[in-house]
Every structure is written in C-alpha cells, then in structure tokens.
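Narrative of activities, Objective 1.

The group set out to show that a structural description can be obtained from nothing but a protein's sequence at a throughput compatible with the screening campaign. Below is one input-output pair from the validation batch, recorded exactly as produced.
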Amino acid sequence: QVQLVESGGGLVQAGGSLRLSCAASGNIFSIVAMGWYRQAPGKQRELVATVTTGGSYKYADSVKGRFTISRDNAKNTVYLQMNSLKSEDTAVYYCNAEWGRLPLKGSWGQGTQVTVSS
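Output recorded for this entry:
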C-alpha cells in the first residue's frame, strides 16, 4: 500500500502563488507515477499534472506555463508550484500515486482546498 498526505492549500488572491506538497509513505519503491488532480464544485475530477519515475511530465493545457510539478525522491514528496493563479483554479486538489505491477494500483490523498479570490 501507498499512503499520501497533502499540505499547502489555502486562500490566495488572483495572480498569487501557492505550493502544494504530497508526502508518500508505505510501498514507495513500487511507485510508477505521482501527480495532482483537482475537482471543482459540480465538476468531474481532472488531471492537473503528473510525473513518472522515468521523468516524463504531463500537464493539463489550462495550467501549462503556470504550474510546475516536481519530485524530491529523497523525501518521497511531490510538489505542485502554482503561479499566476486564477479564480477558475479554485478546487480541491488531490495527490495521486500509481504503484505496483500491472494493472497498476492507485492511491489518493485526502485532498486540500485551494481557493483563489478575484
């Protein structure tokens, strides 16, 4: 099993920045990819950004150029640096890890609220 704990959400004005952190524990050596998803009220959960252990990155078009995902392997932690925040970025942000052998298993964090005021 892989457990995830997120931190770093909060309230910020439009144009501001926040950094989210997600610490993984448990069977960390089996992790294949980690990433961030978000869910706004009344909407489906959507991918924000992911990074694989091989160093492949993927971003949603809506956050390209503003958000950066990074990974600190020594700390088993993945970060999401969010700059130039917009009101439409308001959502609950969830950390995700894919791990194990095929078919991969998924773990989710508890979610952290990000609210951007205009």
